[in-house]
Design brief:
12 helices, 76% helix, single chain, 261 residues, mainly alpha
């Protein structure tokens, strides 16, 4: 691993590269906050994909791409004489120090739960902090992640199940209500009940310290792998998927499962 001095030198090198690209590269020179935003979202998702696969080389690569965007926005801010990368670093350092009085101050905490409870209270007291507990949840978050964050923040101020096993009563209640609306063929009510059911399942995952977004993505990847197995078999056999019976596809699906084991 590198020394602190080597790390500082590497970060300085990145700043130098960014300065030169912004000056000498036509593409880099024309970028704005607005034009970079879609790329930033894409790079963040690519990092998340590498993290879920636990691919260390890809994680390192994608972290670099995300860091480049942070430096890029810092450079644009500097050109506008609004802020620079030093302001970005100092602001996050100040925020972390302020929000960790149990490390930098006299506050005593005994566990992670107390740290999180203090965190939410501190954010409400900050000058530019959240006006309400849930206002800190970004509106643009994907719905599944947003539900988890909403529940987590509410829990940090004491709004939670006393016994996590009680959440299963809520899950069963919501699925019964969803099934009832589906039988009535009321699409609007069914959609609402589906949302309530998903929210309850996400809550159960949180209470059992499982990340529902990670879990769903793992299942997505598992499905893709198994379905690709079926498709590759159909290509080798010269038989299109549309001509295969469900029984044939199920048999190949089970073969794919056996190979995973």
């Amino acid at each position: 691993m590198h020394t602190r001095e080597e790390k500082m030198e590497a970060f300085g090198r990145l700043l130098d590269v960014m300065d030169r690209l912004r000056k000498d590269c036509p593409w880099d020179r024309k970028q704005t906050n607005e034009s970079l935003r879609p790329n930033t979202i894409e790079e963040t998702y690519e990092l998340c994909d590498a993290l879920i696969r636990d691919d260390q080389q890809e994680i390192c690569k994608e972290l670099g791409d995300v860091l480049l965007h942070v430096v890029f926005y810092g450079k644009i801010g500097e050109e506008k004489e609004q802020f620079d990368i030093a302001d970005v670093c100092n602001k996050i350092c100040d925020k972390l120090i302020f929000r960790h009085p149990h490390v930098y101050g006299e506050t005593v905490v005994n566990n992670v739960k107390e740290v999180l409870e203090n965190w939410e209270q501190i954010k409400l007291k900050e000058k530019d902090g959240n006006k309400t507990v849930l206002s800190g949840v970004p509106a643009a978050l994907p719905s599944l992640i947003k539900a988890y964050r909403i529940q987590d923040k509410a829990s940090n101020v004491g709004f939670d199940w006393e016994d996590r096993q009680d959440v299963w009563k809520k899950v069963r209640e919501e699925i019964d209500e969803l099934e009832a609306e589906l039988k009535r063929e009321d699409k609007e009510r069914s959609t609402q009940e589906l949302g309530d059911f998903l929210f309850a399942v996400i809550n159960a995952a949180r209470l059992y310290k499982l990340n529902p977004d990670n879990a769903l993505e793992m299942t997505n990847q598992k499905f893709i792998s198994r379905f690709n197995y079926i498709e590759q078999h159909s290509i080798r056999a010269g038989k299109p998927l549309t001509e295969m019976s469900l029984e044939e596809m199920d048999a190949l699906w089970n073969e794919a499962k056996q190979e995973e084991a």
